[in-house]
Design a protein that fits this description.
Chains A, B: Homodimer. The structure is a homodimer. The first copy, chain A, is α/β, with parallel strands linked by helices. The first copy, chain A, has six helices and seven strands. Chain A is globular.
Chain lengths: ~180, ~180
């Protein structure tokens, strides 16, 4: 069986990917080798730099993923630095920044970068709104404050399988699966 | 006269450096070649990566600088991503996050990375507090909301010469000047 590495230290992301890649005849392996991410406002630029870096070290096909939450009223904050900002001010900080703000539109973006006979980029977007309070304890990061379009629930209130249907990462991983099945990007 | 490049697109920083380096018999030149900065919570790691990158492109001695504001109550936010966060939520966002927060302690850190016969790192720190409102229009970035210790004024209310006496970057540049004069780090 063909092996494919997912370079991530995030168990939640690996769990999501494992479910999405089930239809493929591939052995998905989690590996947590560190790699540099550059500072850039464009996630694609960050992922391309990282996969080219990893390709010089890892000689098997692999992918990695970067994602961010982009809030309209906050000029795309927290954007590419979503993880650091989650670790410092957290969801309470986001809710405080949006106190008395009417426009709560936001989107999550996921970029999956695959290296297999060259670099390949797959993008997934999930639009929605920031809730007024913490909703649910599922998922990770900003999940409990993000309600995707056409859903009554936040990501934090969904199971992993439900979330994959709506989520940015689910959509990017779906494109990865299609590509690995058919070779069409 | 010996030439030294300061790689920056920030006119405010160049102005500060030009004043600090006056005692030296050196021609300071601003150059705005782009370079990658990695994502890391440690500014030294960011600067070391960048100066090694630039050294492969620029064959003359140069330095660059990275700085950040670290707010105690916000777990070091905005930290290494101070510029992006300034460009998105700005000083109003910081004040909103600190609304009704008593502990307003913060520090600015500056790392100057010189490449001259190898890499050299100089650190400067300025401790102080975040003000309750915008104070002054001088400087740039977070200057109007930061009041350094032993000063009645914010950085935004100071002239460049005054600010250099108190500032993190002034202190890091002072170490750079001492090194360039004496060769002692």
């Amino acid at each position: 069986m063909e092996k494919l590495y997912f370079i991530t230290g995030n168990k939640g992301k690996f769990k999501e990917a494992k479910i999405m890649l089930r239809p493929l005849n591939i052995k998905l392996i989690q590996t947590d080798i560190g790699y540099p991410e550059i500072q850039a406002s464009d996630l694609k630029e960050i992922v391309l730099f990282s996969i080219n870096f990893c390709n010089e070290r890892l000689k098997s096909p692999f992918f990695l993923e970067d994602s961010g939450l982009f809030i309209d009223e906050l000029n795309s904050f927290p954007g590419p630095y979503s993880r650091y900002i989650q670790d410092t001010i957290g969801n309470d900080g986001i809710l405080k920044l949006l106190l008395n703000v009417n426009n709560r539109s936001a989107y999550f973006k996921s970029i999956v970068g695959l290296y297999k006979n060259g670099p390949h980029i797959f993008e997934g977007i999930s639009r929605g709104i920031i809730s007024n309070e913490i909703l649910g304890h599922g998922g990770f990061g900003y999940d409990p404050i993000f309600i995707p379009e056409k859903s009554p629930k936040s990501f934090g209130e969904m199971t992993t399988i439900e979330k994959n249907k709506f989520s940015h990462r689910g959509r990017a991983l779906e494109k990865l699966v299609t590509y690995l099945e058919s070779g069409v990007e």
